[in-house]
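hey so i finally got around to running the thing on that chain from the lab meeting. sorry it took forever, my laptop kept dying and i had to restart like 3 times. anyway pasting the input first so we r on the same page abt which one it is
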Amino acid sequence: MKKIRAILSVILVIAICAAWVAQITSGGASESEYDKYLDSAENYMARSLYQKAADSYKSALLLKEDKEIRDKWIQANHMAYDDEVISKNSFASALSEACGIYPEEAPYWETLLELYIQNSDYASAHSSYNKSVRAGAESEKLTELGLEIEYSFTSSSRTYKEVYESPDGYYTLYSDPHWGVMEPDSEWLYECEYQYISPVSDDRIALCTSEKGQRVISDSGVVQAIVTEPVLSARAVFEGILPVRGEDGMWRYLDCNENKYLSGEYDDASSYVNGISAVRKGSGWSLINTDGDKITETGFEDIKLYGNGDYVYKDRMIASVGGRYGLYDGKGEEVTALNAVDADIYLDDYIAYQDESGKWGFMDSEGKVVIEPQYEGARSFSNGLAAVLADGYWGYINHDRQMAIENQFLDAGYFTKDGVAFVSTFEGFYYMIKLRF
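ok and heres what got predicted. didnt touch it at all, straight out
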């Protein structure tokens, strides 16, 4: 029995030693094979055979993962893509694999995002950027690419000579020789085929001129009134009262239901909102009722009007008294003193204002400065973005003061809740841009 045990022990030792020898031999062979793949890859790179180099690097990585070799593999794929011997999808697949193995390695994500942006594949870029954030990858360049993707936009080729926007994002547009009304999501409320359309009121009613005549029409297509007095230029109609500018440049109010003008004429005039309008005679503004009587003794030096002619939004207006702008309610009572020498309209977000330096910044509705004056010009925030002027061109910033859309426009308007805005790159012509995300 002892002899048998001794023999078994000897056999076991021999087996273990054989296994060690086999492992050492195998490891040596693998190491040799690994080095061979790397030598081949370097040789292929030197000969500009980037596909073959990438394949050799990949074979080496299958034997042993190494960050330095992974970088060389990505480089070989990148050069093969630039040389147009592999597709965008092949290169993207290689980058995605690298991002999966090294999720916090920002350069891999950066290259992947740049690849998608270069190919206008913004959906994949947006998805990959969100993955990089969740993975914890961070870099200044990655943040910049994220902003470029998040605020990327499409552009319309159709241009318009006149654009009038209501506070809630309805556009009255003139494309010679026709007029139309666009909804906040860029769909047509009234097709651009009318001879004239007044700006739209907040209850979606407008004066529309066609071969059938002048009609006040609701968004459901119901004719509210037929107007016989000729109207060539107007603002939004409210409760049947339409501000009309005559050939002499003076403004009067037309009662569309009675087809007659109310008494009084003005140098400027807003639309009526809840029976009150803002009018200017000479250098002073007043708030009046439908009888033309002042509803407050406060005399305003300026009242900011919206694109459709409204003077108030959500019961707030921007006006100046004594050389200083403030936030007032619809009846002329001060809500917040903005202490600004100029200010833009109120859109229920940060308000653009100008201080004594001539620079523009932003305040909240309580008068607190949220972005210090630093811009040549600015428009109030809408949908989380604000147009700012720098070096003669307009772009857009977000609430964090990051440049969301680079300065590139001669003029730039407000974004609707659906991400639509109108901008200009040629004097006198505007076109629509729409955020992708």
